[in-house]
Design goal:
By secondary structure, the protein is an alpha+beta fold. It has two domains: 5-113, Beta-Lactamase (2-Layer Sandwich); 141-209. It has helices spanning 5-22, 58-66, 69-73, 112-125, 141-156, 165-177, 186-194, 198-221; strands at 26-32, 40-44, 77-80, 86-95, 101-110. A five-stranded antiparallel β-sheet has the order 2-1-5-4-3.
Length: 223
């Protein structure tokens, strides 16, 4: 099928309009499939640096030979040019009344810069693999203390009124490890949430600090 002049003119205007719409990274190619050695009859844009009169691609030829051009090349597929540029391609095969593919409308988009931008964004957005840190962003000291106390209680799996002294001591130890008592006035908030007096809380802290000093002394004795 040699395209008639009016058919070729229509395809040329379609290719030029699509190329203008998609921008300088796009190339729109019209192939006459009845002359595969010189199948390119119209080309708008310059991505693959081809010219009218040049042949069908190897992928297109293989698809036509197998009769899979409609199923395998429709939609979009990836291609790589010899200079390393990455293309996003789509080929639409138009059939005649007998159901035979006679014309191919191919769009090639150079997406190399998009891939590079995606890599940069991914690199910038990537974070460390630490999963042991959960930072809480609070707006007041009471909120901060309540968040930390509730976290310690969740770990224990008990409400303070159902805890014995040893369990409350462990909650206070966990809070001390997290630095709660570096905050001025924290003891009052914590004692109220645990349902103990400040004197009891200070007693817990004294026992914890004594244990820490003892552990440090013992470790220093190890040769």
């Amino acid at each position: 099928m040699a395209l008639k002049a009016w058919e070729l003119d229509n395809f040329r205007r379609l290719a030029e309009n699509l190329s203008a719409l998609l921008g300088p990274s796009a190339e729109v190619v019209i192939h006459d499939l009845d002359d595969l050695q010189h199948s390119i009859v119209c080309l708008a844009g310059d991505v693959t640096h081809r010219q009218p009169g040049q042949p069908m691609t190897t992928v297109g030829l293989e698809a036509l030979r197998r009769g899979t051009e409609i199923s395998s090349l429709q939609g979009s597929y990836r291609s790589v040019l010899p200079d390393g540029r990455v293309l996003k391609c789509s080929s639409t095969f138009l059939r005649n009344a007998a159901g035979r593919s006679v014309v191919a409308l191919c769009i090639n988009l150079d997406v190399t810069q998009w891939h590079q931008a995606a890599d940069l964004l991914l690199d910038f957005a990537s974070v460390g693999a630490r999963d042991d840190l959960q930072e809480e962003y609070v707006h007041s000291v009471p909120d901060m203390i309540a968040t930390m106390v509730n976290g310690a209680l969740d770990t224990m799996g008990k409400h303070p009124e159902h805890m014995d002294g040893a369990e409350r001591l462990e909650v206070v130890r966990a809070l001390d490890d997290r630095g709660v008592f570096l905050i001025k006035g924290a003891a009052g908030y914590v004692s109220k949430m645990l349902g103990v007096s400040r004197a009891t809380l200070y007693n817990y802290l004294q026992r914890i600090r004594t244990d820490q000093v003892f552990a440090h002394v013992e470790s220093s004795k190890v040769p």
